[in-house]
Amino acid sequence: MFREYIGLTSSKTRNVIERELVRRFAESIGDAHPIYIDEEFGRQSRFGANIAPPTFPRVLRSGSIEGLKLPLKGLIHGEQIYHYKRPLLVGEEVFCYSKIEDYYEKEGSTGKMGFLKMKRYGEDSHGQLIFTEESITIITETVRRSLNV
Amino acid sequence: MTVLNKINIGETLEATLQPVSRIDLIKYAGSSGDFNPIHTIDEEAKKAGLPGIIAHGMWTMGNLAKLFTPYYEEGFISDYNIRFSGMVFLEDVLTLKAQMVDKTGQLLTFDVSAINQKQKDVVKGKITFELY
User: Fold this and answer.
1) Contact yes or no for B32 and A25 at CB 8 A
2) Which of A101, A125, B92, B126 would bridge A117 by S-S if both were Cys, CB 3.0 to 4.6 A apart?
3) Across chain A, where does the E strand assignment appear?
4) pLDDT digit string, tens, across residues A92-141
5) Which carries the bigger pLDDT value, residue A30 or residue A76?
6) 3-class SS at A25?
7) Are B16 and B94 within 8 A, CB to CB?
8) Contact residues, chain B, for A86 at CB < 8 Å
């Protein structure tokens, strides 16, 4: 069943990198560096603006993938992969969409485990890629049984 | 401040965090929007078969990247790959490490990890830092 999801894509969703969200996010990971939170500091920097920490895109919206049904419990976050062309700037618009890149299964000690690879793309207003964010979610045998898949 | 560009292969950046507290995880839940209760509420963690609440993997991954924040004028993290290999519980003391393993042109590659007080990796991966 999860294999049928490969290739499913959400529609692009507009986000703005909000100053207050970036400040809270940076503080919550113990990284309250002025390049993230001090407006004047950002203006004087090479970017002319503040930037967002590399793991910030988790906060962004990328639209829901129609037809994708995932359990809310029992999922394990296995891997997370970021690729950046440049840092994200506070105040800029970013258009995000998600795609199911792959699904595969492996035999583990607790039965067959499923691996769902989901990738999120973040583009600027001209359609130029800024970042990708890939998550690999592990779906355990117990969860798959409860879903009847 | 050291310049990242001057670091040699084999050298490391390192920092040790304060013991993990519930308020750290409540703040991260709020700032990230990840309200999965196994990260904040004891009863829910127990229902999920855990001995207690566990940190968001992304909280640890977010913390680890801050080893590179001071070098923002020199370059940026162009690739950041992490495998979540262990759970982080309240009061755990994490040490963040980045060891340079390669330097090719504008790209500096680091093996990165967060290690708990029992010397076990809880997250492990690679960072590529691209110089401007």
Assistant:
1) yes
2) A101
3) 13-16, 75-84, 93-108, 111-123, 129-139
4) 999 999 999 999 999 877 788 899 999 999 999 999 999 999 999 998 87
5) A30
6) helix
7) yes
8) 76
Please give the residue of chain A at the shortest CA–CA distance from B128: A83
| Contact call for A28 and B57, based on CB within 8 A | no
Q: Cβ neighbours of residue A40 under 8 Å, at least 6 residues apart?
A: none
Q: Closest residue of B to A18, CA-based?
A: B31
Residue A147 has pLDDT above 70, yes or no: no
Q: Which residue from A51, A76, A84 is facing B78, i.e. has the nearest CB?
A: A84
B10 Cα to chain A: minimum distance (Å): 24
- Domains (range + CATH), chain A: 2-16+61-147 (3.10.129.10)
In the block, residue with structure tokens 């639209």: A63
How many residues make up chain A in this entry? 149
Which domains are seen in chain B, by residue range?
10-131 (3.10.129.10)
Residue B3, helix vs strand vs coil: coil
How long a stretch of residues is chain B? 132
* Cβ-nearest to B66 among A30, A59, A84: A30
Asked whether the beta carbons of residue A77 and residue B84 sit closer than 8 angstroms, the reply is yes
> Alpha carbon of A74 to those of A70, A100, A138, B25: distances in Å?
10, 19, 9, 19
